[in-house]
Amino acid sequence: MVTSAENLSNPTATSPYGSRNLIEGNARLIGLSNRLLGAHIAHAGLIMFWAGSITVSQALNFDPAIPLGEQDLSLISNLARLGWGVGEGGQVIDLYPYFVIGILHLVGSAVLGAGGLFHVFRGPDSLEDGNSVAKKFHYEWNDPKQLTLILGHHLLFLGIAALAFVAKATRWGGIYDPAIGDVRLVSPNFSPADIFGYLAGLTPDGWNLLGMASVNSLEDVVGGHVWIGSMLIVGGIFHIVVKAKVIFPIRLNADAILSYSLGALAFMAFVSWAFVSYNGTVFPSELYGTGSQTQTRQVVQISLGLLFLGGHLWHAYRGIAISQGRTANRLG
Questions:
Q1: Which sign, positive or negative, has the C-alpha torsion 188, 193, 197, 203?
Q2: Rounded to two decimals, what is the model's pTM?
Q3: What is the mean pLDDT of residues 130-139?
Q4: Which of 32, 137, 267, 309 pairs with 188 at a CA distance of 20 to 30 A?
């Protein structure tokens, strides 16, 4: 086991890159599962803080005399799309929900920040040295059974989030429907032919190149979340209980696994670009605006997609090199 002192004195004790500098970032923590977890939690706290602070700021700067779609308040638009504080015609009628949600995010960010600091400064370097619960989540990058256990828990949380959206749309007040210009409860479409047909561009109106981004019915949007949420939860339980071995010949090291995640993020960014560009059901113009506002969202999504794709390719290359026993010094 590598201790903190050894980690400081030996720059290659926890990193396969052969050097120790700020450019490595969290790569310095590759061999320290608890400290890497702390950095992970702290990063989530920063995201929560950004969401909370910007939501409160946008609520304070909202001008009721100007339509929401003309004010470039993207987080308020996202919340209005979910049916909070918005009424007929996409008009904001109540700012209180936005303040509440913003403050809840700020409180959550403080909790996550404290958790990140605890794992970094007070907890052991490795989860292997923690209590019985912590030990359960210790991992080695080449151990598929332990990695699939952690993957399973991530899938569970994603599935719960998807079904929470379904509950909001069907039970907890409904969501905004641009087709009628008001908030309503949605009855999901569960038809697998309809839902999965979008993946091949098969829509009720015929084939469409946009695929998923061509959906124009909230029933299909919510029904798709029912399917994906259920699949994620079933997959999460499967990975937790079965701890399946890796079936496909994939590389298992920190860079390779990061490259898989970045590849998925790149795909989602490109899909999001199609939605913000062409889908008025998911991104209603009365809430998000048109023209330059749409172009800005397009640029942001494409830029993020290219950034993630570049990271995917880079870390995939690093993963291949590391699996072959090379280090950053040899990579150049």
A1: negative
A2: 0.86
A3: 82
A4: 267
